[in-house]
Amino acid sequence: MRKTTIIYLCVIGAGRVGTTVSCTLAEKELPNIRLKAISSRSTESLNRAKEILGSKATGVIFTRENPLAASLANCVLICTPDDTIKDVCSEIFKDKSKNFKKYYVIHFSGSKSLEVLNSARAAGAEIASIHPLKSFASIQDAIKSLPGTVFGITYSSAESKKMAEFLVKSLGGKIIEVENKKKPLYHAAACVASNYLVALINYAVLIHKKIGIKPEDSLKGLLGLVEGTVSNIKKMGTKKSLTGPIARGDVDTIKEHIGSFNEFFSKEDAALYKMMGIETIKIAQQNKWIKESTVEELKEILKE
User: What's the pLDDT tens digit per position in 270-294?
Assistant: First the structure.
């Protein structure tokens, strides 16, 4: 990072991520960071951000004009939806007569490469990306739990790396580096761990619903199981936390599962169970908890 005495920030996008980042940095009152502006196309989002910042909103410009917000800063944080980042960046840096060599531009997408910031790079700005491995379902909860969050950072130079590291540190986060061209896979892993977990638990609730258990009762019971599993993963990692019939090599139990699916469910409803079962066999096999003959027998049952 260049030896800039003060980092003047503007945040483009007043959604859940942009507001969380804005509020976190404003509340810390760091001596070398000043939040100058927040921009959003939505007046409702701007009003919500202003309300959440409360007294920390004093002196911050709230605007619907992205170029205006960027003109007040030397570090632009783009927190808009992924597919709009390129256009937002181009809008800010469309004036080719200006020199932006003292600027940093950072987007917060997990999947988009640095190329979406090419217009900023062409104007002379340093570019990077920062992505928190975190669910932002609630702004208030995200603000409270942001410290300790792991952030994937991608950068184009030593200068942009220093700025990315500085911002993550300021947000109370921890860093992992992500190669630019492999960002989609990094993001895919995050989707599996978060979005697909929601889908998987929903699938379990639907199985219970099929046999007459109310969704609210099912979810209450299953969440206790999920929370215990997550606790085990924190202590022992993923592979050693595996439990259940496949981990024990209980072939007859899996046969019973498949028999019940065949009796009460469609083939489509059983497909996810079978697919996840095959993945579970791989873990048990890697742990050397089940014999090779058991592995083959389980695979045959699940591939029927």
Answer: 999 999 999 999 999 999 999 999 9
> Which among 261, 229, 222 is positioned nearest to 244, based on CA atoms?
229
Boundaries of every domain in the chain: 7-182, 193-302
Q: What pLDDT shows up at residue 2? A: 53
Model-wide pTM > 0.70: yes
CATH tag for 7-182 (out of 3.40.50.2300, 3.20.20.150, 3.40.1360.10, 3.40.50.720): 3.40.50.720
Q: How far is residue 149's CA from residue 193's CA, in Å, rounded to a whole number?
A: 15
Cβ–Cβ < 8 Å for 189, 167: no
- The first and second tokens of residue 266, run together, are 């469609």
How is the chain split among helix, strand and coil, in percent rounded to 5? 60, 15, 30
Asked if 77 contacts 108 with a C-beta cutoff of 8 angstroms, the reply is yes
d(CA 139, CA 27): 14
> What's the DSSP call for residue 12?
E
Contact 277, 254 (CB under 8 A): yes
Q: What is the CATH number of domain 193-302?
A: 1.10.1040
In order, the DSSP letters of 117-173 are: GHHHHHTT-EEEEEEE-S--S-HHHHHHH-TT-EEEEEESSHHHHHHHHHHHHHTT-
